[in-house]
Amino acid sequence: MFKDVKGGFGTVTLNFMERYAEVDPKFVKQFKDELGGIWRLKDECGNRHIVKFNNSVTSHFVIDGMIQLRQFYGLTGSNLLLFSYKGNNKFRLTVFKKEVEEYSFPAFHSQSSKPKPKKFVVTLTKYTASESELKDFAEFMRGCKQHKSLYFMGPSASFVPCKLLIWEGRRSCVKFGSGWKKFCADSGFKAGDVLTFECKDAKKSRIIFVTKTSN
């Protein structure tokens, strides 16, 4: 889990819109009082980048630095970027080099086809909260098996990577592996909590939003 993260958003950078990237309006609304025109990015390898934010009240874009960023990571198509906000206009940047399809774009994105998200309600037991077997929507999770790992966003508003483990055969089951137990602990989820899992598309999207409905 990324430390000291206050919020974040995911967006898609496109080859025919390579000069800028769209920013989630909800993120801008949440941090409008502190966002400046210069954003400082740092990826998991320590590479640093500087981009400019237009700070518009209507349309929100990163307007400078995207061409250089795409060239640095060798991006040539439609690629997902995760911006994890640490405050003071500093971000943890996660770059996915595998291209994404239009219908898996964030809903706010101008090129998104905006399908209805899929939602599943799961009640955590002592076993599922600690050992990660969630049978309630196993079939849906099987549709994610090509990803091998997923990114969860919970109350902390940061993206948490988690392994996806799938066994087939007589004892077939689906589990969230490395990362899930810590995600529950960091999010304050415990046995008896009712959680809502929201995902746009099992076969394409790697991001799942998790909220607590009741306890």
Walk me through the structure.
The chain is built from 5 helices and 13 strands. It is α+β, with helices and mostly antiparallel strands. The chain folds into 2 domains: 98 residues, At1g16640 B3 domain (Beta Barrel), CATH 2.40.330; 97 residues, Beta Barrel (At1g16640 B3 domain), CATH 2.40.330. The strands form 2 sheets. It has a 7-stranded mixed sheet. The chain has a 6-stranded mixed sheet with strand order 8-12-13-9-10-11. A hairpin with a 5-residue loop joins strand 9 and strand 10. About 2% of the residues have low confidence. This is TF-B3 domain-containing protein. One of its GO terms (cellular component) is nucleus. It comes from Trifolium subterraneum.
Which terms summarize this structure?
At1g16640 B3 domain, 7-stranded mixed β-sheet, 6-stranded mixed β-sheet, alpha+beta, 38% strand
How many separate domains make up the residues?
2
Count the DSSP helices: 5
Q: So, CATH architecture of the largest domain?
A: Beta Barrel
Residue stretches low in confidence (pLDDT < 50, at least 5 long) are 129-133
Strand order of the largest sheet: 1-6-7-3-4-5-2
Share of β-strand residues: 35-45%
What is the terminal-to-terminal distance?
Answer: 24 Å
Morphology = globular
Structural class: alpha+beta
Rg measurement, Å: 18 Å
Largest sheet: 7 strands, mixed
Can you give the mean pLDDT? 83
- Give a count of the beta strands, DSSP E runs of length 2 or more: 13
Classify the fold: give the CATH topology of the largest domain: At1g16640 B3 domain
Helix-residue proportion: 10-25%
Give the CATH H-level superfamily of the largest domain.
Answer: DNA-binding pseudobarrel domain
Order of helices and strands: EEHEEEHEEEHHEEEHEE
The CATH class of the largest domain:
Mainly Beta
GO cellular component, one term: nucleus
GO molecular function, one term: DNA binding
Protein name: TF-B3 domain-containing protein
InterPro entries: B3_DNA-bd (IPR003340), DNA-bd_pseudobarrel_sf (IPR015300)
